[in-house]
From TrEMBL, chains A, B:
Keywords: Cytoplasm, Folate-binding, Histidine metabolism, Transferase. Pathway: Amino-acid degradation; L-histidine degradation into L-glutamate; L-glutamate from N-formimidoyl-L-glutamate (transferase route): step 1/1. It is found in: Cytoplasm. Transmembrane segments: none annotated. It comes from Tetragenococcus koreensis. It is an enzyme of class 2 (transferase). This is glutamate formimidoyltransferase. Residues 3-180 form the Formiminotransferase N-terminal subdomain domain. GO terms for molecular function: folic acid binding; glutamate formimidoyltransferase activity. InterPro entries: Formiminotransferase_C, Formiminotransferase_C_sf, Formiminotransferase_cat, Formiminotransferase_N, Formiminotransferase_N_sf, FormiminoTrfase_cat_dom_sf, FTCD. Gene3D superfamilies: Formiminotransferase, C-terminal subdomain (3.30.70.670), Formiminotransferase, N-terminal subdomain (3.30.990.10). GO terms for biological process: L-histidine metabolic process. Residues 181-296 form the Formiminotransferase C-terminal subdomain domain.
């Protein structure tokens, strides 16, 4: 069975639809790759592509997109609400099927090397591909943004993983790495009190002592006038969805508040939800790879 | 995206491994088809093949297997514990992906017609393909078995759907139809009292007033000395797994008995479990086809 890898490159262009459509055309032309989705945010001036493909195809498509982006996007002229440091800002590789995290890390390094050698863009390896702890977190890597990168690259601890200590004049710096699939999972509370959502979010957040692979904030859903715990589940194996859901349920009880419902935004691997069914139905000895019919059909 | 159809033919041969292996070879040789599994039961003297393929491949493989079975299996010499009426006893077609039940019914009728025309085996259409209510149930169609078929075919209401009122001399009669995927789902109770499992099974069974698409019996798991509600879920959309699970939970409470766990035996479509996660996590507006990543990858 072919290995399947997801790649979610972020480009610093969300206003010029000609460029975005050309990126999509490039992606569609690469053999062994499917373009699942792409969307642009004009206020962020940024586009996110979701691709999936085999081991070779996913490397080819990533490089081809970065090459074109480096030719047409000039960061010196870029304005937008989202932090960014490169024409291609960040490229995560994600294991989907019959592929290990280690293999995705290898892929990320191969692509990083090629981008640097052929396009002279310096690369930081981040997340699972990071060489040191302080490069794991993308926000830390990107701090200073495009404008601050020339100076940051001179700092002792910020030599690029590939390339010299100078930015590409127009394409800046790119972060390349491997990570688990990210699931946007929100839980709605039967209250208009955002403080409750914020308190529960703090309990859940790995960074404040909660679940290691959960990022969480409390927000208001203005249209419905209810508070929501909005989460990014960055490793559904390490922190399954049901665990945060049940924790929200029992923490909200302290305030006499119930859960109204939840939302999964965008794509999710089937396994993240099947794992929850396994928990709630108390299924013994379930073998996801062997027992789920569709797993035998993926080419 | 290609339509994906499952086919689960049952053959009246489970002892001669040469014949079974040759059936497997035939299945592996058909283009557009994957042989997911095959297993033989020597006491039943019967083999079950699980195949999946596109619209054309699945018809080709079904016909090729039936043709070979009709050449090498002689029902006059068949002995075994399982009811049977044909060399190929029954051929269900099952919608898996991007295919409707109506299309699977059409496929079943095309294959049935070809088997009859080219091999002179009379066919009963059963389950969703059945022309009348009393042909839906396979047990009713097969009643009388191979030995009783010559006489049964003479009865007013038992003219075959394809073919004349006489059996194939060695290959008998075959049932062909379309049905939903079947999931074997068992729930273990914290009791050694089989009567409780039997009472709950009766509550669940469609045939005794329970859920329409649930077949259930109470059995003992001798090795663990616990009682089990053993179910065949014949349409997980009509009767989802969580509904029987929660019903067992609240019915068992009457006796002060808890659920120990459950088992899914063999294959299940991912959607049957994702539907359960949707229920327990109270996910609002989840779109299975669009939001599950793997659905974009199936060829």
């Amino acid at each position: 069975m072919a290995k399947l890898i997801e790649c979610v490159p972020n480009f610093s262009e969300g206003r010029n639809q000609e460029i975005v459509e050309h990126l999509a055309e490039i992606a569609r032309d690469v053999k062994g790759v499917t373009l699942l989705d792409y969307s642009s945010d004009t206020s962020h001036n940024r586009s996110v592509f979701t691709l999936v493909g085999d081991e070779n195809g996913i490397q080819d498509v990533a490089f081809s997109l970065v090459k074109y982006a480096s030719e047409v996007i000039d960061l010196n002229k870029h304005e937008g609400g989202h932090p960014r440091m490169g024409a291609t800002d960040v490229i995560p590789f994600v294991p989907i099927k019959d592929v290990t995290m280690e293999e995705c890390i290898e892929i990320s390094k191969k692509v990083a090397k090629k981008i640097n050698e052929e396009l002279q863009i310096p690369i930081f390896l981040y997340e699972e591909s990071a060489a040191t702890q302080n490069r794991k977190n993308l926000a830390k890597v990107r701090k200073g943004q495009f404008e601050g990168m020339p100076e940051k690259l001179q700092q002792e601890e910020w030599a690029p993983d590939f390339g010299e200590r100078k930015i590409h004049p127009t394409a800046g710096v790119t972060a390349v790495g491997a990570r688990m699939p990210l699931i946007a999972f929100n839980v709605n509370l039967d209250t208009d009190n955002i403080d409750v959502a914020k308190k529960i979010a703090k309990i859940l957040r790995g960074s404040s002592g909660g679940f290691k692979y959960c990022k969480a904030i409390g927000v208001m859903l203005e249209g419905r006038n209810i508070a929501q715990v909005s989460m990014n589940m960055v490793n559904y194996e390490g922190t399954p969805l049901y665990r945060t859901f049940e924790t929200i349920r029992f923490e909200a009880k302290r305030y006499g508040i119930n859960i109204l419902g939840s939302e999964v935004i965008g794509l999710t691997p089937a396994q993240a939800l099947v794992d929850c069914a396994e928990y709630y139905l108390q299924i013994e000895d379930f073998d996801y790879d062997k027992q789920v019919l569709e797993n035998h059909l993926l080419s």
